[in-house]
């Protein structure tokens, strides 16, 4: 295949260091994704069995200091508290990608950023059109089908055992990270009600102290964790969703080493420490209390909210990602990396329609936990994600032989030094 005229290939191979780092992340996220699937399945089963009352009672049980606006239900603690860990890790990953990762190159960053924007805009448009036509007062949930759940998506990849090229898996990971950033902006701007400036301004004090310490490369948890908790509590009291605090804290952490070396910096150190807790505990526990939709009690697949979410995830996501990727190809004159085809991109774009964690969160913020619209949104998220995973599995399995051939050829080129020849040649396509 002819090389890209622009000097950059779409879905090209990143640096060896970046590829190995992404491989470590993917292993953690894939394992976490399997736990996420199990937690969601358990929630749906419990919500539709004689144990549903016990499940609801535990979910609605409240605890915490009421004077600090922290007398919350168990479900609210998982959504406001545990998901802050998830977004802290996402913030670390995002900052690292654009400061020291392969995406510090604007030419490489253009593709996942454009794909993420398109992958959020088209599902939102589809959902809005469906619900405006229905005139049911539910367009407020327009952002529900816009997010990609990387853990769930990678769990699907693990289950179908595909030899998807690392460059496409890196693209999927980066797309999901940018998705998370856009979701945080949407949550902060569109789903913040009753803003209180005093606690928001007070939150800047512990946030700044946290930033000063990490800039000095302080790693002591007994210093940093109390500042992070105070920042989170004040952001929560301000009316801004508390998960925003996780991103703000992550953005203060330095990526590069103070001595200028090439080893992992503080951001990567924190990411390594906190990612297993996020993927293996925080996100699955949130899913367990958020995904418990009563199938018979929801309005069903005929409800506009459900239809809008399903169409947004199943059609809007892949169309938005695929069209945006093609536009980058069209206007930058970059070609697909050697060995890849647009069927590969279509499969990954369809897999991006597996939305779950952030979609469930936005559904609760838009309609209120337990409301009829929220129940319909949950049903749409579950159905849309399962259908997107099924279609993506068919597409990727059809390409599995091609992926295996690429992997086998690459392995034959490896030397005993453990470094693939493609990196020693400096070929990043």
Automatic annotation (TrEMBL):
It comes from Asanoa iriomotensis. InterPro entries: Na/H_antiporter_dom_sf (IPR023171), NhaA (IPR004670). NCBIfam families: NhaA (TIGR00773). It holds the Pfam family Na_H_antiport_1. The keyword DNA repair does not apply. Gene3D superfamilies: Na+/H+ antiporter like domain. Keywords: Antiport, Cell membrane, Ion transport, Membrane, Sodium, Sodium transport, Transmembrane, Transmembrane helix, Transport. This is Na(+)/H(+) antiporter NhaA. Residues 415-429 have a biased composition (Basic and acidic residues). It is a multi-pass membrane protein. It catalyses: Na(+)(in) + 2 H(+)(out) = Na(+)(out) + 2 H(+)(in). Belongs to the NhaA Na(+)/H(+) (TC 2.A.33) antiporter family. It is found in: Cell inner membrane; Cell membrane. It comes from the Bacteria. Its main location: membrane.
């Amino acid at each position: 295949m002819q090389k890209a005229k622009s000097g950059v290939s779409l879905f090209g191979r990143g640096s060896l260091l970046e590829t190995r780092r992404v491989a470590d992340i993917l292993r953690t996220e894939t394992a976490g994704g399997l736990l996420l699937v199990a937690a969601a399945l358990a929630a749906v089963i419990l919500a539709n069995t004689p144990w549903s009352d016990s499940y609801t009672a535990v979910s609605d049980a409240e605890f915490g200091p009421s004077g600090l606006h922290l007398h919350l239900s168990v479900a609210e603690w998982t959504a406001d508290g545990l998901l802050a860990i998830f977004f802290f890790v996402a913030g670390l990953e995002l900052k690292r990608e654009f400061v020291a990762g392969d995406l510090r190159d604007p030419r490489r960053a253009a593709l996942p950023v454009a794909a993420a924007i398109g992958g959020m805009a088209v599902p939102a448009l589809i959902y809005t059109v469906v619900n405006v036509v229905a005139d049911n007062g539910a367009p407020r949930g327009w952002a529900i089908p816009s997010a990609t759940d990387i853990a769930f998506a990678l769990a699907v990849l693990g289950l179908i055992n595909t030899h998807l090229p690392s460059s496409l898996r890196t693209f999927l990971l980066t797309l999901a990270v940018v998705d998370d950033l856009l979701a945080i902006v949407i949550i902060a701007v569109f789903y913040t009600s009753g803003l209180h400036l005093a606690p928001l301004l007070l939150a800047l004090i512990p946030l700044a102290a946290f930033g000063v310490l990490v800039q000095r490369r302080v790693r002591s948890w007994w210093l940093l964790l109390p500042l992070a908790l105070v920042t989170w509590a004040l952001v929560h009291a301000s009316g801004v969703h508390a998960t925003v605090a996780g991103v703000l804290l992550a953005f203060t952490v330095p990526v590069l080493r103070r001595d200028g070396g090439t080893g992992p910096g503080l951001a990567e150190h924190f990411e390594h420490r906190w990612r297993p807790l996020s993927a293996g505990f925080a996100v699955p526990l949130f899913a367990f209390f958020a995904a418990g939709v009563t199938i018979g009690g929801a309005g069903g697949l005929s409800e506009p909210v459900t239809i809008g979410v399903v169409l947004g995830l199943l059609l809007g996501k892949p169309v938005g990602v695929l069209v945006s990727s093609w536009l980058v190809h069209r206007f930058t004159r970059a070609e697909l990396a050697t060995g890849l085809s647009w069927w590969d991109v279509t499969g990954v774009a369809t897999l991006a329609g597996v939305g779950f964690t952030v979609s469930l969160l936005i559904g609760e913020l838009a309609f209120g936990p337990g409301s009829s619209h929220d129940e319909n949104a949950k049903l749409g998220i579950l159905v849309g994600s399962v259908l997107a995973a099924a279609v993506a599995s068919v597409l990727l399995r059809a390409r599995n032989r091609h992926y295996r051939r690429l992997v086998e050829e690459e392995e034959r080129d490896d030397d005993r030094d453990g470094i693939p020849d493609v990196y020693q040649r400096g070929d990043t396509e």
